[in-house]
Amino acid sequence: MVDESEEDDELQIVVDTAQAGGRLDAVIAAVAALSRAQAQRLIEDGHVTIANAAASKSTRVRAGDVIDIVVPPPEPLEVTPEPIPLAILFEDSDLIVIDKPAGLVVHPAAGHASGTLVNALLYHCKDLSGIGGVARPGIVHRLDKDTSGVMVAAKSERAHAALTAGFADKSIERTYLAITSPAPPAASGTLRTLYGRHPTHRKKFSSKVTSGKHAVTHWQRLEKLHEAALVRFRLETGRTHQIRVHASDHGWPLVGDPVYGHKPRDARLADVSRALARQALHAATLAFAHPASGARLIFESPLPEDMQRALAALTDSSA
Known about the structure:
Elements: E1 9-14, H1 24-32, H2 36-44, E2 48-50, E3 53-54, E4 66-71, E5 88-91, E6 95-100, H3 117-124, E7 148-154, H4 157-168, E8 173-180, E9 188-197, E10 205-206, E11 213-225, E12 228-235, H5 242-249, H6 267-276, E13 281-289, E14 296-300, H7 305-314
Parallel strand pairs: 7-13
Antiparallel strand pairs: 1-4, 2-3, 2-4, 5-6, 6-7, 8-12, 8-13, 9-10, 9-11, 11-12, 13-14
Helix pairs in contact: 1-2, 6-7
């Protein structure tokens, strides 16, 4: 629905009875084939009016309301394409799925103006520019710099909208493998907490807050190790650092985590942590419906070599 020419794209919606009572941002997203976040940005930037009057994203529309929308063209993208190798698991005209290595930053930010996944995607995908905004083209979710594994990026507006909606309504399934120390206290469980900024360390997040968003993480202990365990996590929500925070706040942080972990007292664990030089976290599977065909796609990434070495070093025959 976004026109990539220099002209603004204008759209008018007349609210029908089926749409009546819905939130303005949701109605725009559904009709204009935009993501909810894109619709909200248009409203916040003053590009949406109802009967020629400004409105808020939470406005409830009524039957007969006339919604005028002006979609400006994407801003010029100033991120430079770079020939960074990508491990591509799947690609078509709508999306690209990659196996991200640990150490690769997803999008440009302070201190990382180049050498990011976005730089690599812009070089590889000539039609990616403008999708999802100027700073993070095609990015609908992310992995931390030092988390490895499966990621998907959008190459079309319809894919961006569908994937964004899939993450929001939890229809996209994600599982991760991690090494925690110590082992979780039971074979499996679910962590349901509030989630927000840490009250004193503003660059960190916490699940021990009195107000915030809800966060849900399901976990299963796969193998007991020396003073540790291999654990599978399944995300129901996708908060920043969610697995790392949930595991740490419940007493079994990820091995090697420089932010939420602890310095191991055990010599073997200390050696493994130093060798990893990152949190022991890997995005193992990603499953979702293709935005065009609706076919169910499942992608898997094998455990990377550094985590395989860590597992071998922590294998305890007495466990």
